[in-house]
Amino acid sequence: MSARLGQVFERCKAEGRAALVGYLTAGDPNPQQSRELLLRLATHCDILEIGMPFSDPMADGPVIEAASVRALAAGTHINDVFELSRAVRQARPDMGIVLMGYANVPYAMGFELFSERAASAGADGVLIVDIPPEEGGLCDAAFKAHALDRILLLSPTSPDERIRLACAEGSGFLYYVSLTGITGADMGDIADIRSKVAHIQAMTDIPVCVGFGIKTPEQAAQVAVFADGVVVGSHFVSQIAGNSDVHAALTALDTSAAAMQTATGGGQT
Questions:
Q1: CATH 3.20.20.70 is held by the domain 3-263
Q2: Domain layout of the chain by residue ranges
Q3: Among 13, 40, 63, 152, which is least packed, fewest CB within 10 Å?
């Protein structure tokens, strides 16, 4: 685990709360306004996931897919993603930053160059949705060379063999997908999620964060009871989609993020 992500989870544990992990797509609705939105969200979160926009985000629902469309239409490039990460790092030196997206972008750039630039932009880890642990040979060496954690996904259908592999190959935190579906869908049964997370936690010391489908502070509070972190994505992205004026979007995002922060046990950061 990177020193910074480790410190984030240690700090949250010492405060008796779950980490709040917030997601926005870089460049949505355009790179300039995205910077304001990311910096605003960062004031409420412990870890920020910065989405790398991609034209075929297969794991994402319509809310995040539309965010990618808006970002790409505004001309957002991977260079903008790095610059946005750097801006957040300068403003929030102690928070965790994870770049999230699909393999095409770093593959086209080359994983070595991508990793070098991600690390220099202040990222602590990378979550590549469509590179499973079995295919880590594509990127693991480059990530490790630049001290980037490789965040891996687990789901309700993950057997123990896959869980053990993710625990062995992943670092930073494990991202447990609460449902068998796309981002923004309805969250799964809370009792089932709690049981599965407890099962994973018994197999590893790596923090386990839960995401996909968490849309309300009440859901976030339920998950925060047993998870090491609560991931909120589509709910935050929807604040942008529902407000064409950037000032209205900033206000809506600020309000929703503050509520999620309170629900997970945090105060103003």
A1: yes
A2: 3-263
A3: 13
